[in-house]
Amino acid sequence: MSNLTQRERDESEELLHSALAGGKLPRWAVPAVAAGALLLAFVLNVTTSVDGVAGTLIVAVLLFLAGQTAWSFAVEGRRHAVDRLATTAIYATFLIALAPLVAVLATVIVRGIEVISAEFLTTSMRNISPRSEGGGLYHALIGTLEQVGIAALIGIPLGILTAIYLVEYSTSSKSKRLGRSISFFVDVMTGVPSVVVGLFVYTAFILTLGMQRSGFAGSIALTILMLPVVVRSTEEMLRIVPRDLREASYALGIPKWRTILKIVLPTATAGIITGSMLAVARVAGETAPLLLTTFLSQSINTNPFKGPQAALPTFIWDQFTSATDASVNRAWGAALVLIVLVMVLYLAAKIISRFTGVKKS
Amino acid sequence: MAKRIDVTDLDIYYGSFKAVEGVTFSVEPRSVTALIGPSGCGKSTVLRSLNRMHEVIPGAYTDGKVLLDGEDIYGADVDPVNVRRTIGMVFQRPNPFPTMSIKDNVLAGLKLEGGRRSKGDSNEIVERSLRGANLWDEVKDRLDRPGAGLSGGQQQRLCIARAIAIEPQVLLMDEPCSALDPISTLAIEDLIEELKERFTIVIVTHNMQQAARVSDTTAFFNLAGVGKPGKLVEIAATPVMFSTPTQQATEDYISGRFG
Fold first, then answer.
1. Looking at A114, A131, A148, which one is the last position of a domain?
2. What interface predicted TM-score (ipTM) does this complex get?
3. Within a domain: A1
4. Do A258 and B51 touch (CB under 8 A)?
5. What pLDDT, on the 0 to 100 scale, is given for residue A47?
6. Rounded Cα distance, A282 and A280, in Å
7. Chain B interface with A: residues with Cβ < 8 Å
8. Is the whole model's pTM more than 0.90, yes or no?
9. Cα A244 to chain centroid, rounded
10. pLDDT of A1
11. Mean pLDDT across chain B, nearest whole number?
12. Partners of B62 in beta bridges
């Protein structure tokens, strides 16, 4: 290098520079294009048939995409332009997907919060006509807690045990066939509409076996519905527990059942709890199977094994179909309570799974 | 402590695939035997069949005799769980249990075996095992911290402590240093030197210097080609093996002419 002249050195540096560095949009480019797109969309809104907030926003987003891509293509080249296009498209679709969720939550909270009061949470609908104000969902809250609780008590252990069989025991060629057919039926169960499950419980347990319409009949239907979700999520969690850990345990002379109980399950706890809670959350909002099995009730019935029992989803359905101002308001209130209930359960599960399972250093 | 192993005419299969054929050798008590050979020659497979870990893989089985002090570990009424309590194993990748603290990792084999122990006993076993694995001084102040938080070399020594806590007769090591840096490797090699006074050790290694450094006996495995079963080519005292091997293949491999 030392015997190169200063000029040669400059030239080589320049060459190096142009080979590695490309054009780059200035920092202010993105906000500038966004502002320009919004402005242009607003102008179009005023001057042409582009109309309404949503329409104008969509036009603005499209203008932004076009403007940014074109500018980037001119300055930064094709690869960067496509990168920016794809990134923006992903953010845009994410926001679109988020919109209904936020809208539903916001509406339920706004409409529900007006209704919720101490009376609403602690009284039933006994002797209250759909038309009149007052009353509450206490009976439905009790019903949902009992029905979902019983369903979880049966469904989660059963689901986890099924998953353990599928992952840990159906490995030899003989048991593989059984495992595969269980797996197949779990898939089928996932696809069965909830109302069909309700009909099944209705015909099999209530009509054929003479069981009463009760909270427990509803629990059976909910158990069937949550089972495949628990099995699948647990199965996935067990499968990602490394083989190494099982082998390490076997090599210490720990029997298989203890390995599963003390090594495999604890390692997968967090995921299993999350999966199970999602299953609970899913069935907590089921309406159709409960209408067929628990029926409707306006009064408090704390015994899940005897007589019709209310539940939050069927309460919402009942109040909504009454179609008076008072009852529709009660439906909104119950919807908010149901969402809060599921959220509390979910948070509780998250906290539990934080304190169990894999230790973080 | 420390028993001898006699392997006679051992064939090892993965389903219908014969991975290893006709292996016969003996391991003396309180010695280190190194198994070397190119990848895929079946040395790890042989190691895993010495404590019946091979059959953990679905479809895998063995044919032949493995005697531990004269008793066939593949005998009809032998419980593989008992075999593994007698013949411990350390794996290639450190695998401490992620749900357990350092202390619980050491005690895992004892606790999960079902026996109840007093607290004093447990503490004594933890200290003895960790000292045995040359890890005590590094972790004695944080026994309740997760085992997975240690460095790779420390984790591997934790796994060794866990393996020797159950007082096995034999210790199998499957490339115990291949995931470790040279300093950690040296620590493990020193440890092997100490451990062989109490245990019979069989170690698989890809590192021939390591085999030369730590082992008393070296066995060389090779395979005729892809899809063919691996075979034991030669076994001899390590100095003999590395200076005057009788087989051409051994000499080629050791001198780096192939594999």
1. A114
2. 0.89
3. no
4. no
5. 86
6. 5
7. 51, 53, 56, 58-59, 81-86, 88-89, 91, 93, 95, 97-101, 108-109, 112-114, 145-146, 148-149, 159, 162-163, 166
8. no
9. 32
10. 45
11. 90
12. B12
Cβ of residue A358 closer than 8 Å to a chain B Cβ: yes
Q: What value does the mean pLDDT of chain A take?
A: 89
pLDDT at A140 over 80: yes
Q: Report how far residue B97's alpha carbon sits from residue A266's, in angstroms, rounded to the nearest whole number.
A: 10
B57, closest residue in chain A (CA to CA): A171
Amino acid at A360: K
pLDDT at A325 over 60: yes
Nearest to B166 among A173, A252, A263 (CB): A252
- Per CB-CB distance under 8 Å, the chain A contacts of B73 are none
Pairwise CB contact (< 8 Å): B99 & A359: yes
Count Cβ–Cβ pairs < 8 Å, chain A vs chain B: 88
Nearest CA in chain A to B100: A359
Domain housing A184 = 122-355
CA atoms of A290 and B48, how far apart (whole Å): 55
Does one domain contain both A195 and A340?
A: yes
Q: Residue A237 above 70 pLDDT?
A: yes
Identity of the residue in A249, A258, A361 whose CB atom sits nearest the CB atom of B145: A361
Are residues A74 and A207 both part of a single domain? no
Q: What is the mean pLDDT of residues A279-308?
A: 92
Is A279 in the same domain as A345?
Answer: yes
Residue A3 within any structural domain of the chain: no
Task: Find where tokens 């509803």 sit.
Answer: A218
B33 band by pLDDT with thresholds 50, 70 and 90:
very high
Nearest CA in chain A to B54: A247
Q: Which chain B residue has the Cα nearest residue A176?
A: B58
State the first-to-last Cα distance of chain B, in angstroms, to the nearest integer.
37
- Are A237 and A263 members of one domain? yes
| Residue A2 predicted with pLDDT over 90 | no
Do residue A80 and residue A196 come from a single domain?
Answer: no
Could you say which residues from 237 to 266 on chain A have a Cβ atom under 8 Å away from some Cβ of chain B?
Answer: 242, 244-255, 258-259, 262-263, 266
Report pLDDT digits (tens) over A160-190. Answer: 999 999 999 988 778 889 999 999 999 999 9
Q: Which two tokens stand for residue B91?
A: 């794996």
- Do B7 and B174 meet the contact criterion of CB atoms below 8 Å apart? no
Cα dist. B170→A265, A295, B48, B117 in Å? 29, 67, 13, 24
- pLDDT at position A7 over 80: no
Share of chain B above pLDDT 90, in %: 66
For residues B136 and A215, give the distance between their C-alpha atoms in angstroms, rounded to a whole number. Answer: 58
Q: What pLDDT digit, counting tens, does each position of B113-160 carry?
A: 755 566 678 899 999 999 988 899 999 999 999 998 899 889 999 999
Calculate how close chain B gets to A267, using CA atoms only, in Å: 6
The predicted model gives B7-12 an average pLDDT of: 94
* Spacing of C-alpha A59 from chain mean position: 31
Cα(B49)–Cα(A265) distance, integer angstroms:
27
What is the number of structural domains in chain A? 2
Q: Give the C-alpha distances (Å, rounded to integers) separating A108 from A58, A335, B63.
A: 26, 7, 68
Final residue belonging to a domain, choices A114, A141, A166: A114
User: Tokens 């069937």 — which residue?
Assistant: A224
Residue A174 touches partner B, C-beta closer than 8 Å: no
Is there a contact between A251 and B81 if contact means CB atoms under 8 Å apart?
no
| Domain match, A210 and A61 both | no
Same domain, A85 and A168: no
Domain map (residue ranges) of chain B: 5-95+171-187+197-254
Among all residues of chain B, which has the CA nearest to that of A359?
A: B99
* Domain B5-95+171-187+197-254, classified CATH 3.40.50.300, yes or no: yes
* In a shared domain, residues A61 and A148: no
Residue A183 falls within a domain, yes or no?
A: yes
